[in-house]
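pinned: reference chain
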Amino acid sequence: INDAGQDDDTDGIPIEWEHRFGFNPSIWDDHMHLDPDGDSLNNIEEYQTWAFGSDPFRKDIFLEIDYMQESNGDVKYVSTAALELVKNPYHRRNIVFHFDTGQLDGGDIVPYDEKITFEKIRSLWNTYFLHNDTNNWRRGVFHYVLFVPDQKPGAYAFSGDVPPYWGYIPGTNGFTIATSVIEKKAKIPLLTADHITASLIVHEMGHNLGIRFGRPFGCDNKLTSRPWRIGWYIWRNYRSIMNYRYTYTILDYSDGSHGKRDYDDWENIDLGYFEKPK
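pinned: its structure tokens
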């Protein structure tokens, strides 16, 4: 008898998932509050993304990617090579990075808008990510990125739950990137569009994970961006993609092992920082 899909203990998860991961399908478990791997995804959310590769005993990160059309109607998609580059720093630390580019309601195409503002981005986040449902379960599972043709600043993180702001408060779960920035930076010798795209995603994901200006001071500090600025030297040991000096040269966060004024990003990353504050 195939009993797949049954939930005899009425704890919200069917027998096959509980059996697969070592839970007793005949005993009620508080899966809504169980998070064995500490990745901020409870067992209900791990089950909802099981077909997508989630594992309750291994940290997972999910990112939905959507695209705004160009003025001529074209769509500039992120390449598979760029997505593989994004995965590398996380996978080296046993955090599996998953992309939804159309497999699970992601990959939406947004109509072109000549003038993109913070408030419009927030509205698009609600329409294409939450699908106008404030209780959409994806809010507690997925991060969100929208690629747009052009904007100022060229890339920034945000929380769709609050009005637009300058800063990265708890609950920051989205970001937007302008393809014009990628095209401009790709003209620099030795830099490729794939590497730049991956760098921007990893940098903005850092903000979704709680790394922001002021914690540490070398993060997003414009004084570190050019050799003629003093911060270039003061925070040279902060060898992180979050440091503007290294945004396109180091595709990783720092581990804090580089001396004075370095900062251990990996030790301080908060996988639950993107969750909607209660």
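why pinned: The mean pLDDT is 94. The longest strand covers residues 59-68.
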